[in-house]
Fold:
Amino acid sequence: MFAANAPYRPALVPETQYCGPMPTSTPTWDHDNQRFVGLIANPVASKDIRRLVGLARVVDVEEKANLIARLLVGLTAGPPVAVVALDDSGGMVKRALRLARGKTPPVEFLPIEADASERDTHDAAAMLRAMGARALVTVGGDGTIRSAVEGWPDARLVPLAAGTNNAVAIVHEPTMVGYATSLAAAGLVPDDAYDQLTTMVVQTGAAEPSTAVVDAVGVRTHWTGALALWEPDDLVEAVVANARPEAVGIASIAAALGPIPPRHARYIRFGPGRRVRAIFGPGLVGEISVAEHHTIAEGTRIHLASGTRVVALDGERRLIRGDEAYVDVAAGAFLLSVSKTLAFNSKTGGTNWSFGPNAGDLEE
Amino acid sequence: MTTMTERKLTTQKAIAEAIAQEMERDDTVFALGEDIGVYGGIFGATEGLLGQFGADRIMDTPISETGFIGAAIGAATNGLRPIAELMFVDFFGVCMDQIYNNMAKIHYFSGGNVKVPMVLMTAAGGGYSDAGQHSQTLWGTFAHLPGMKVVVPSNPYDAKGLMISAIRDDNPVLYIFHKGVLGLGWMTNNPRATGPVPEEAYTVPIGKAAVAREGTDVTIATISLSVHRALDAAEQLESDGISAEVLDLRSLVPLDREAILDSVRKTHRLLVVDEDYQSFGMTGEVITTAVEGAFDYLDAPPARIAIPDVPIPYARVLEQFVLPNADKIVAGVKSLLTA
Amino acid sequence: MEIPQDHLVDMYSTMVKIRYFEERIREIYFADKLPAFDIAAGEVPGEMHLAAGQEPVAVGTMPHLKAGDAITATHRPHHVAIAQGLDLKQMTAEIFGKATGLGRGKGGHMHLFSTEPNFGCSGIIAEGMPVAVGAALAFKKLGKDNVAISFFGEGAANQGAFHESLNLAALWNLPVVFICEDNAYAISVPKAASTAIADNSDRASAYGMPGVLVPENDPVAVYEVAREAIARARAGDGPSLIEVKTDRLWGHFEGDADAYRTDEYKESMGGRDALVAYEGRLLEEGVLTAADRDAVIKKMHGEVDEAIDFARNSPDPAPEDALLHVFA
Structure:
C-alpha cells in the first residue's frame, strides 16, 4: 500500500479489565509428529469503499468468524490435523474458537502481532511455509490470496471466499472445505486434486517484486488510496490470469474475449477499438474499449507501457518507481479442488484413514 | 385581555388549533413525536393535523427520544421551527441530556449567535391512577435549569395563546399541559377544561401570570390543574366569607415575580399550591420570592401544599392522599387566616 | 478518480496547521499550571482535549463540503473546526475565554459554535449525533442539497444516541454521514474492553446503511471514502457510516498521565505519525518540494501564532456578561 505508515494496531487489553472469557486452550498436539495446516484470515476484506460505490457485499467480522468456526469444525471430519493461525487484528480466529468451543482441532497462533496490513498475511504465509504447513487456508478475497501467495509462492492453497471480488476463492460451505482440507493435508487426494494457478510476478522498481493472482492492471490515475475503483478511462493495460468468464472484475473482461488455455494469461491494452461489456465489480456494469489483446504463455515477460505510474495488483495499487516495470507470467500456487477431493474420498470408501491417536502419523 | 366570544373549545382542541394555525402561517413549523400522526397524539395535541398537513410535517417517530429531540435541535438551528412532543414528561429521563445540556445551552454557549427556536411539548399530571412513572408534573426540575422557558397553561384560552407564543418564540420553550385540564372524553369530566377560545390566532405573553379570580384575604398562587382546584376552593371559601385571590402563574420561566408580589402586598397572606414534589421546587421558589420582596407585607408565614416527596402511588385512596385538592386548599387557607 | 493537486497540498497545509495549533495550545495550557498541576489556573483553564494524530479524519472530509453543510463534533473538536475553516482568531479567543471568542467566552473549548461555517460541538458523548440528523432533516425539508456530518469516537458508538441516530437517519433517508474516529481508547478503556464487536463499521448494516472501514490513518484514504459517502448523501441516496482507525497521540486530556497505554504502544504511534508519513509521501512524489514544504510550515505557523496573539490581546468579558445571552 502507499501509506508509509503501518495501519491500525489493535488496542491492548490489560488484564485488569473484564471482557468475558476468551478461549485460552485448545487440545494439545504433538508438534513433532502431527500434521498441521496454516490459517490466515483477513479482517478488513470486503469492508471497503467498494461497499459505497457499487453494491459489494459486506462480510462483517462476526460473519467471517462464523465462517472460520465452520471451517475449523470441518477440519475435524477427516484425519486429525492441527491448525497454526495468524491471530488477526479483528480477533476473528479467537471469536471462531469461542463459537465452536470444544469442536475444533488444536489451534495455535503464530508469533506475529497483526495489524491488519498486507504485511501480516505475507509474513504469516512465509512463516507457515518454513514451519512445514501441509496447506494454507485463507479467508478473504483475491487481495488476501495475493498477499499469501507473495509470502508462499508455491503454496497448497485453500482460499475461502469472504471478500469483495472472489475470482479465485472458493465459495463452498466452509465445513466441507475444512473436511476436504483435512483429507488433503493427509495426502488423501487424487493426482489432479490441485489446479496450479498461473501467477504474475510484477517488478515495480521496488526492492522486491510483487505478485498478482488475478490481474495486474496498469492505471493512469496516480493519486489515490490503496484500493482500485475502476473508471474505464483510468485503465491502460492489464495482464489477467486464472480468469473465468463468471468472475466479476477485470477478469471477466479478459475471459469474455475468448477462452484462456491453462498455463496462459491474457494481455489487454485498453484504448479505442472494440467496445466490450465490462462488469467492473458487484453492481457495477459498464463498458470498455479494448484496443488489442493476445494470449501469453507462462514464461513470458511483458513490459508495462512507459508513463504508467501505477499498477494495481488484484485491486491493490503499487507505485511504479523508475523505468523498469514488467510482468512475468509464471506458474504459481496450487489451488485445492474441494469437489475432486471429496469425490475421491467417497470413491475410495472413506476408509483409507482411521480414527484414533495414531491416525496422524500417515505418510503422504 | 380575554376577547369576548361565544365559541367554546376544550384545552386539547385549543392546543391542536394553535399548532394548526401556526403551521398554516409558517411553512417552517412542523411537528414530530410518537403517535402524533395517525393517532393525533396520545392526548390529542395534534388531532386532525396529519390529515391537514401530511406526513412530511406531522412526523411519527420511532421510540427514540434522544434521537428525535436531538434532531429537533438540529432542525431548529438550521432554519426550521420544530414542535417535538415528549409523550409523558416522566419520560424525560431517557433524553434529558438533549433537553437541558444541549437545547437549553446552545444559545448561551454560542454567545447568542445560534438560536434554537423549538417547542418541546409534553403531557404531565396525575389523579387517574396512572402510577409513579406516568403521573408526575416535574416542571420544577425543568424550571430549575437555565436556558429553557417553561409554560404551563391551565385553561383553553391560555393554552392556545401560549402555544402560539411558544412557537413564535426564538427560544426553546417547554410547553407542559396537564392531562386533567385537556377536557378529554376518556378522563374524569372537568367543566373547567372547556372555555371560550377566539377563532383567530392570538398570543398570551410568556412570563406573565394572570389573576384567575380576584380576592382580598389570601393569595393562592398556583399553576395548571391546581388552578381549577383553587378556584373550586375559592368558591367554597366565599360561602365562608373568605375572599381568596387565585393567581395562575402560567409561566415558570420566566416567573412573574412582580405579579406574586403585587398580590401578596394586597392580601398579606400566601398559600402556594403545586402538584409537583414539595421539596426543592416551585413552592419554595414562590415563597422565597414573596419573602424576599414583600416580607413586611406578610401577616403570616407563607404556606404550601404539594406532593409530599413520595413517588405517586397507584391505589386511588393513596393517590388522592398525596395530590392537592380543593379541601386541602380550603383547610390551608383557613389555617393561614388563624395563624 | 484522480485527486486534484491543490486538494493534496491543502490537506497537508491543514494538517500542519492543526498539529501546530494543538502543540501551542498544549504548551500554553501547561505553562502556568505547573509545578503542581492546578486545572483551574492559567491562561487556558479547565479541561483540554487535543487531537494530535487525528488530523487525517478531518482534512480528508472537508474538501467535499460546501457552504451550508453542517458539522457536529465532539469534546475533541479542534482538528475538525480548523479543517472546516472556522475563524481561527475567534476560535482561539473562545478557547482563551475572551470576549472576542465565538461564544463571547461562554462556551470554551468544548462548546465551539459557528454559523458560517456551520459547526457545533459538545462535551457530552454522542450528543451531536441526533443534532446532525436534525440538520440533515432540515436540509431535506427545505430542499437544499447540503449534507450533515457527525464526528464521534468509538466510545460514543456504545451510547444510545448513536443507535437512535443511525436508525432515524436510515429510516428517513437523510443526507448525513457518520464518521467514527476510532482512536482505540475511550479515555483509558481500550476498544476491546468496551465493544463486543471488532469494527463499528459493521454496525451500519444493522441500521440499514452501508458501513466502510478505513484501516489506515491516512488523509488520502479518508478523502476517497468521504468523497463517495458525501456524494451519495448529496444525491439523496441516504446516510452511511465511515470508520477510520486513527491515533490519539497524546492523552485523553492534557494532564492525563496516560499510564494505561504502554510505552511500546505510544512509540508505535509515533512511528506511524500521519503528518510525517503524508509529508514524506508528498515530497517523495514531487507534489511538494522541500521549499514548498518550508513555505507551508512557515505560513501555517504564522496563522496560528497570529490567532494566539489575537486571543491573548483580547479583553476578558465583563463579569456581569455571565447573565446575558440565556435567551434570545
User: Anything to note?
Assistant: Residues 1-11, 355-364 of chain A have pLDDT under 50 and may be disordered. The interface with chain C takes residues 1-14, 17-19, 43-44, 47-49, 51-53, 58, 60-62, 90-92, 95, 116-117, 221-226, 229, 231, 234, 319 of chain A (CB under 8 Å).
